[in-house]
Amino acid sequence: MAQYLITNEKKDIPFEDSNDEIARVVQNAKNLLMTRMAEVPYDRLRGFDMALYDLPFPDFQFELPAEVDRLMLWEPRVKVVSAEASLETDREGLFNGILIQVVIDVQIEE
Question: Residues 54-62: contacts with CB within 8 Å, 24+ apart?
Answer without folding.
Answer: 57/85, 57/87, 57/98, 60/85, 60/98, 61/85
